[in-house]
Specification:
By secondary structure, the protein is α+β, with helices and mostly antiparallel strands. Helices cover 29% and strands 10% of the residues. The chain is built from four helices and four strands, in the order H-H-E-H-H-E-E-E. The N and C termini lie far apart (35 Å).
Amino acid sequence: MSLRKAINAMCRQCAYDDRDVGSAAQQIACCINTSCPLHAYRPVTASFIPSRLLEVYRIAVGELDDRARRLVRYESSGAVGAQNGNLLSLELIPKAGSEGSLQ
C-alpha cells in the first residue's frame, strides 16, 4: 500500500461516519484535529463544504485550515450535495447532555 493510500485510509477510518451528514471527503476536509500528525496531509478532495455543514458540526470557519477554508460555500439552503442527501435540521440533533443524546 502506498503512503498516500495509507493516509487516506487512516483519515477515512478516523473522521468518516456514514450515518452522519456530508460525504467522506467533506467530513475529512472538516477535520480540525490539529494534534494529529497526519492532519496537514489529510486528503482535502471535497469539491465544496456547505456552510450549513459547519453549523451542524459546530465548527467555525476560522477553525478550518486554509485548504478547507477555501472550499466553504455559503448557502441559504440546507443541501449537502453528498450521498446523505439534505442536511438535517439543527433542531433534530440532540444537544450534549439532553435526553436522547448519543453520548
